[in-house]
Amino acid sequence: MSKQNAYTREELLKCSRGELFGPGNAQLPAPNMLMIDRITHISETGGRYGKGEIVAELDINPDLWFFACHFEGDPVMPGCLGLDAMWQLVGFHLGWLGYEGKGRALGSGEVKFFGQVLPTAKKVTYTIHIKRTINRSLTLGIAEGSMAVDGREIYTAEGLRVGLFTSTDSF
């Protein structure tokens, strides 16, 4: 059976409720922290390293919750939300591959911000290149990511690390 290679918002919401990969396995956060509206492409091969790739999108409108509070009179999407979306996608990829456990962001290497998302923007596009997947005592995904707004790259992140844990009691 082949894996699905794209997901709608409703399917991503199913993932946030634990209905996509099964109870106790990788979940996306629920709105408002879900920073993805759709996955337009996901694969086990391809990408910069031949180990998998994800392309996802977020529609921007001036009513998004963060514009009202970050910053008053100078609305901009917080950079940490774009970074979190990249971690969300690496964790989703692990669940999509069939690995079990709850996802947790474990860090990143260098992150660069050289642009911003304003309420006048239309669409954010995330591109994730899987560098390595390890499945031993810990399941770990390592990736590089970028974020573009209306076609212009504005963030990059190296060494994105997400782990899956069968128990988070001692985490």
TrEMBL record:
InterPro entries: FabA, FabA_FabZ, HotDog_dom_sf
Pathway noted in the entry: Lipid metabolism; fatty acid biosynthesis
UniProt entry keywords in alphabetical sequence: Cytoplasm, Fatty acid biosynthesis, Fatty acid metabolism, Isomerase, Lipid biosynthesis, Lipid metabolism, Lyase
Chief location bin: cytoplasm
GO molecular function, one term: (3R)-hydroxyacyl-[acyl-carrier-protein] dehydratase activity
Catalytic activity as recorded in UniProt: (3R)-hydroxydecanoyl-[ACP] = (2E)-decenoyl-[ACP] + H2O; (2E)-decenoyl-[ACP] = (3Z)-decenoyl-[ACP]; a (3R)-hydroxyacyl-[ACP] = a (2E)-enoyl-[ACP] + H2O
Enzyme Commission number(s): 4.2.1.59, 5.3.3.14
Location of this chain's protein in the cell: Cytoplasm
Gene3D superfamilies in UniProt: Hotdog Thioesterase (3.10.129.10)
Annotated active site: H70
The keyword Lyase is annotated on this UniProt entry: yes
Origin: domain of life: Bacteria
GO cellular component, one term: cytoplasm
GO biological process, one term: unsaturated fatty acid biosynthetic process
Function: Necessary for the introduction of cis unsaturation into fatty acids. Catalyzes the dehydration of (3R)-3-hydroxydecanoyl-ACP to E-(2)-decenoyl-ACP and then its isomerization to Z-(3)-decenoyl-ACP. Can catalyze the dehydratase reaction for beta-hydroxyacyl-ACPs with saturated chain lengths up to 16:0, being most active on intermediate chain length.
Quaternary assembly: Homodimer.
Homology family: Belongs to the thioester dehydratase family. FabA subfamily.
Protein name as annotated: 3-hydroxydecanoyl-[acyl-carrier-protein] dehydratase
Organism expressing this protein natively: Halopseudomonas laoshanensis
Gene that this sequence comes from: fabA
